[in-house]
Write a structure and sequence with these properties.
By secondary structure, the chain is an alpha/beta fold. It has helices spanning about 30-50, 70-80, 100-110, 125-130, 135-150, 165-180, 195-200; strands at about 1-5, 10, 20, 55-60, 90, 115, 155-160, 185-190. It contains 7 helices and 8 strands. α3 links the parallel β5 and β6 (about 115).
Length: about 200
């Protein structure tokens, strides 16, 4: 399985400890894409030399859909060319403020078989507290748009124990996610890591 990391987000979540940052004016995207394409090509050489074949491509982050659509498309097609025959292609389209119809249609046309639309919580106050720049209704709208575009395999992530959330609040988030009928719901428990703003802030 091949993991491709896109280390950019519109905002950095308070709990995040990943090696990623806010995209800002986007000046780092183009050089990153060029470096990443070189790494994809070199990785493909190693895979071929070992006599292996990629089963799946997973594009994560960060938030891959935070970068311009054309840049993400370039990365996906470079990966598909380097690792032909992968039977699964997942892209984290995690934040609803980074996806629109054009982005979703590009992902589908580029062979993406599975996406994640990640609410983390359906409590708007908790979303603000953790640094998300969207509402729960925007998550629901993005989910329905993904269905309308044609995605038939959608994952949603939830995090239990977010700052200020309650058992009742998490139960509501879980019930809301279930009511949407995604193919997968992934539940994480909040983990406080040294590099997160919740710890260092």
């Amino acid at each position: 399985d091949i993991y491709i990391g896109i280390p950019f987000c519109k905002t950095r979540c308070a709990y995040c400890s990943f090696s990623s940052g806010e995209i800002g004016d986007g000046h780092l995207v183009a050089p990153y894409v060029e470096a990443l394409k070189r790494e994809i090509a070199l990785s493909a050489q190693i895979v071929a030399e070992k006599g292996l074949r990629a089963r799946a491509l997973y594009v994560g982050g960060g938030t891959p859909t935070a970068i311009p659509r054309e840049a993400l498309e370039e990365i996906i097609f470079a990966a598909r060319k380097a690792f032909p025959g992968a039977v699964e292609q997942t892209v984290e389209a995690g934040r609803p403020d980074t996806i629109d119809r054009a982005m979703l249609e590009m992902l589908l046309n580029a062979g993406t078989t599975r996406i994640s639309v990640n609410p983390q919580t359906f409590n708007d106050e908790t979303l603000r507290r953790i640094g998300r720049a969207h509402t729960s209704q925007e998550t629901i709208a993005a989910y329905h748009l993904a269905r309308a575009v044609g995605f038939t395999d959608i994952n949603m992530d939830l995090i239990a124990g977010l700052p200020g959330d309650t058992v009742e609040g998490f139960e509501k988030s879980l019930s809301t996610a279930i009511s949407l009928s995604p193919e997968n719901i992934t539940v994480h428990t909040l983990t406080l890591k040294r590099a997160s703003n919740l710890v260092i802030g």
